[in-house]
Amino acid sequence: MAETWLVVGLGNPGPRYEATRHNIGQMVVDELAARRGETFKAHKTNARVVETWLRPGDAKIVLAKPNSFMNVSGGPVAGLAKFYGVDPDHVVVVHDELDIPFDTIKLKTGGGHGGHNGVRDVAKALATPDFPRVRVGIGRPAGRQDAADWVLDPFGAAERKNLPILIDDAADAVEQLIGEGLLAAQQKHHAPRA
Questions:
Q1: Can you give the residue ranges of every domain in the chain?
Q2: 22, 43, 90, 116: which one is catalytic?
């Protein structure tokens, strides 16, 4: 039987947050569902899910968007992992990253949460930080704007021009991580962009 992967896009629920920097993880998971012609359905774990495949006959993937706020994402993620029988090393968390410049993607497994409360809560709920992460760079605010306000703002006009490409690249990174492994995905997506 094909292995199952859980791909979780972190974000905040509701229209107020849909287009904000903090929700880029959910935007990436939306792209992965759209590529497969799928729509999200309510799940009893306080999340919306799509059950699909990487490619037909290949690994099963469960795309998920928690209905909870970012800082309490762990409960739905742990619930989904338990429901689908997925170990932490097959739980891919896609999230925004302040410490990476906008238009940059980094992948890693394990390590600290870097002050990201959603990642912190997922690590706590899974009882391990050792899960793969696709970190989508949103950069830090210029000047004195508070980072907490920055992540809850919509992308700026200049960013919005490149946003579809960034989301597309991050979705590619998720697919490559699952299909070819972390190292292959890192080698492709950590290289400077042409």
A1: 4-189
A2: 22
Q: What is the mean pLDDT of each run of 10 residues along the chain (194 residues)?
A: 89 94 97 97 96 88 96 96 96 96 94 91 97 96 86 92 96 96 92 62
Residue ranges of the annotated binding site are 17, 69, 71, 117
Cβ contact 91:133 at 8 Å: no
- Which residues are annotated as part of the binding site for tRNA? 17, 69, 71, 117
Q: What own/partner pairs with CB < 8 Å and gap ≥ 24 does 156-162 have?
A: 159/102, 162/102, 162/103
116 is catalytic: no
Q: Which fold has domain 4-189?
A: Rossmann fold (3.40.50)
pTM value is 0.95
